[in-house]
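Before the break, one more example. Copy the sequence into your notebook; we will annotate it together after we see the structure.
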Amino acid sequence: MDFYLIGFFPKRRVTRANWESSRDGEPQHPFPEPQPVQQICSVSNCMVKRLSIFDYQELSQKSFNQYGGFNQLSTAIDLCAKIHDDEFDIYAYAIPEFHFQDGVAHEEEIGCVDPDEIPENSSDFLMLGYDVVELRGCSFFCSPLTCNGQAYLNIDILNQYCLVEQKTDAIKLATEFSIDKPEPGPYTIVEIWKYLGKENGGEAT
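Here is what the structure looks like once it is written out:
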């Protein structure tokens, strides 16, 4: 199965250690995911907010590709450096050329994006795992593992990032979600890479 890179996504860091409920004026709620989850790295914006044009007004809408990410890693790095750099991580997302609806795999047309490539064997990126995500067109709507409590029902296949550890388990879960419909679907699998350049002292080229 081939995965195709669809861009770079700066997202606010959400960990068990720094967890705060997001609704002002309400009592603090416990960290919403079970052990062994220590950080939420889901694709959905519900739990882990993504930076957008509204976070930095000098960016034009043309800076973003069809999936709401950046084609250039350097753009994502520059944006994070200007907005509370230490509060955000940068992720690279890749998806396959199919999605699941009602238990059946269908061809998925990848949007017209041309992101920087992740160099093979690069020490600047770490593959974290797979999210199973409702996808409509080029919009990610929901990650049921974190948005619908499905992590508690599938904890045996998840890692510390609240992501599915193995690709085969992610395919099986996407098929099940497309039948059980925690959200209407369709569903795809997202391969998630974390940019470690800052930690490694590296810079985007």
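The first strand starts at residue 4 and ends at 12. The CA atoms of residues 145 and 153 lie 9 Å apart. Try to locate both features in your own notes.
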